[in-house]
Design a protein that fits this description.
The complex is a heterodimer. Chain A is mainly α. Chain A is built from six helices and no strands. The mean pLDDT of chain A is 96. In chain B, helix 3 runs antiparallel to helix 8, helix 4 runs antiparallel to helix 6 and helix 5 runs antiparallel to helix 6. In chain B, 42% of the residues are buried. By secondary structure, chain B is mainly α. The mean pLDDT of chain B is 96. Chain B has a two-stranded antiparallel sheet. The chains are: A mainly alpha, B mainly alpha.
């Protein structure tokens, strides 16, 4: 736990075992993108947008709607954030960074440029993921 | 109960992602540029191990698979868009969250963007469902079903291809 890095093959194999156990014990496969949909529904509701007529948020008996939270996957996503925090703090790997090294070398140190690109990248990535069924 | 399992599973998964260094922009973009295959080593190892374990459990009747529908239109267009977005953001949805956990706060912009992307998809869903997902829609289909062969044959072939890839990654020090 205090080591900075583990062999990626070993860490990947352990993640595979974790998935097997999760499906076996609680019937849950790993995923995150559905949580973005559910949180988006909650955010829309909280700013006064009625999602009760939206075909997507009401699809599959409201599986993607605001009322589906909290659920297993939301906790899984929060857990992943906590796990990364705990792991990086224990090994001294935690570091606040707004512009990744590779980005900085190519596009410079501006956090705004990086932030805008990351934002629009996120819009396109999640739209695509949902279209593809992921 | 289910919420507790979700949290514990997430924490363990987050630790593994962090230790494997896959929560980094440089590693994700490094894989797309074919200069650092760390994330492929992690993902493919995970896929082989879980494929074997999950199909053993399925054959024993202990679990049920959760298979996504195959839609050539949805997956071709959605996958391409996902690739463009992933290349711009440098994190996938799960790793963007994990990246924030280890202090890479550019992941937060990605998270805000992904929430907007989700809302945008919800608005366009009726159109996508009617016009795009219907293109080449095969329903819940797996590769062994499509080929009419045992899933173990598919798993063994996939595992062999992956092992050759691992050998090449190490040989070329990627």
């Amino acid at each position: 736990m205090f080591k900075r890095t583990w062999n990626p093959y070993l860490a990947g194999a352990l993640a595979g075992i974790l998935l097997i156990l999760s499906v076996w014990i609680s019937g849950k496969f790993f995923g995150t993108s559905t949580t973005f949909v559910r949180v988006a529904a909650v955010v829309e509701e909280s700013i006064g947008i009625d999602t009760s007529a939206n075909a997507y948020f009401t699809a599959k008996k409201g599986k993607y709607g605001a009322s589906s939270l909290p659920d297993w996957q939301l906790m899984f996503v929060i857990g992943a954030l906590l796990g990364a925090f705990i792991s990086s703090r224990l090994s001294g790997d935690f570091k606040i960074q707004l512009v990744p090294d590779m980005w900085r070398k190519r596009f410079g140190p501006s956090p705004v440029k990086r932030g805008v690109t990351a934002f629009f990248g996120g819009v396109i990535a999640l739209f695509g993921a949902r279209l593809a069924g992921g | 109960m289910s919420l507790g399992y979700g949290l514990i599973t997430g924490i363990l998964f987050g630790i593994l992602l962090q230790k494997a260094q896959v929560l980094r922009y440089d590693k994700q973009i490094g894989a797309m540029r074919f200069i650092d295959m760390t994330i492929f080593k992690f993902m493919l190892s995970s896929i082989i191990v879980s494929a074997i374990g999950l199909y053993l459990l399925k054959d024993a009747g202990l679990i049920k698979m959760s298979i996504k529908g195959t839609s050539i239109g949805g997956q071709l267009l959605g996958g391409s868009l996902f690739g463009i977005g992933w290349g711009l953001l440098g994190y996938c949805p799960g790793t963007a969250v994990g990246a924030v956990g280890e202090g890479r706060l550019d992941g937060l912009w990605g998270i805000f963007g992904m929430l907007c992307g989700a809302a945008l998809y919800a608005e366009t869903y009726p159109f996508m469902k009617a016009k795009v997902i219907t293109l080449g829609n095969y329903g819940k289909l797996t590769l062994p079903q499509a080929l009419g062969i045992s899933h173990w044959l598919v798993i063994v072939v996939f595992a062999l291809i992956t092992l050759v890839m691992f050998y090449l990654f190490e040989k070329k020090k990627l």
